[in-house]
Fold:
Amino acid sequence: MSEIDTTTEETIGLRMTRTLPATPDEVFDAYTDAEKQKTWFSILDEEPGIVEITVDLRVGGTQVAVWGPDRDTLFREEQVFLEIDRPHRLVTSSTGSDPSGQTMSTRIEITFEAVDGGTLVTVVQTGFPTPEVRDFFASTAWVGAFDRIEAYLRETTTPVVE
Structure:
């Protein structure tokens, strides 16, 4: 189940939810552990690409992800951890760039809540430069990330009993 709400009061932002089939601890770890991310980042890809991730999971620490189909076509995102309440909440400031060199900075708040059947993940991301960029993240980027994390969790965790 997914829910998307693209309205915010202050800046251009989105709010999305998805129930994932694992405990909050398992989902939080899948989202924040570099080795687990390297697996789920490319789990649905037909062709292997480049995925490099480092994580220093502490307030003030960073997560740096570099990915793409080849060295000439890389995306990069650096997140600074602002709040960490494992396994309930994670807040980061994110600066990303695409292969053309365009950059964007946003704030991402993620909560992980135990529910029947798994964990309800809620993402609130604000600071998009345009509604079109926000809509891409709502319809493609976050949906793809959720799909990949869900596939990873289905392969590596014991199903949550309802």
